[in-house]
């Protein structure tokens, strides 16, 4: 029993060691491609999404939304009837929120989710997150519209296809939110490396000072208190005679002589 536990612990340590080595290698490649600029390397890492455990959840949500398009939306109306606003959808008075939801389910729930899984691009993921967020709101609105329709209108309430699509959109939205609201392992490793190298040189310390306090660095200047010297100089100027006589301006005190 103890030997099996030891083997399990050893295999876990080996797996963690291989993951750490792969992470360090990837960080080094990003730093090399960024020319040694860790900030640029972190931005490059942020442009790529590592789905990890969210990938199966995304695929399940995608399949549910895709299947819901072919399921009954409301009575005899199916999801693709609402999508293309067919004669059946017009006959049973399909509302505008239902049509908006159907297109958001196709574009955001199916196409953009597939694009996120294939491209692993953060830009595609952001667009997918926005569309699915709006989509599940319209799905709830569509269910409410079907339930609150007047009895004089033809058609039935929401069917399981509409409910399936709403659940699938919510699942995709939650899975995407879990990826967006936290940084990946590569970004964390680069950020930790940036913090470690922040205080190594004067330029990095100045940048950290600006980020933390918002104050630009300035050179230290020795302040000299010369106020007393200035006061003495001002007194000398005031005590100095205002009129200075020249050599040819002397006046005879006895006045002019008469011949």
UniProtKB/TrEMBL annotation:
Domain of life, source organism: Bacteria
Record-annotated membrane-spanning stretches: 49-71, 100-118, 125-145, 157-178
Region entry Disordered, spans: 221-259
Keywords (A to Z) from UniProt: Membrane, Transmembrane, Transmembrane helix
Name the UniProt record assigns to this protein: Uncharacterized protein
Species in which this protein is naturally found: Corynebacterium kalidii
């Amino acid at each position: 029993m103890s030997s099996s536990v030891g083997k399990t612990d050893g295999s876990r340590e080996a797996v963690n060691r291989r993951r750490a080595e792969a992470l360090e290698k990837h960080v080094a490649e990003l730093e090399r491609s960024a020319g040694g600029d860790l900030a640029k390397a972190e931005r490059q890492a942020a442009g790529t999404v590592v789905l990890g455990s969210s990938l199966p959840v995304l695929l399940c949500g995608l399949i549910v939304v895709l299947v819901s398009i072919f399921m009954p939306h409301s009575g005899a109306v199916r999801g693709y009837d609402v999508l293309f606003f067919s004669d059946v959808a017009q006959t049973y008075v399909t509302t505008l929120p239902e049509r908006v939801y159907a297109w958001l389910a196709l574009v955001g729930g199916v196409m953009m989710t597939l694009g996120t899984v294939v491209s692993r691009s953060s830009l595609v993921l952001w667009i997918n997150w926005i569309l699915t967020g709006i989509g599940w709101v319209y799905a709830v609105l569509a269910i409410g519209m079907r339930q609150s329709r007047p009895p004089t209108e033809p058609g039935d309430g929401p069917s399981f296809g509409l409910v399936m699509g709403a659940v699938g959109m919510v699942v995709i939205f939650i899975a995407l939110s879990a990826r967006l609201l936290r940084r990946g392992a590569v970004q964390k490793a680069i950020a930790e490396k940036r913090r470690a190298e922040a205080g190594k040189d004067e330029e990095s310390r100045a940048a950290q000072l600006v980020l933390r306090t918002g104050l630009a660095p300035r050179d230290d200047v020795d302040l000299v208190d010369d106020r007393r010297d200035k006061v003495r100089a001002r007194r000398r100027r005031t005590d100095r005679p205002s009129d200075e006589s020249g050599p040819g301006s002397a006046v005879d005190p006895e006045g002019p002589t008469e011949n």
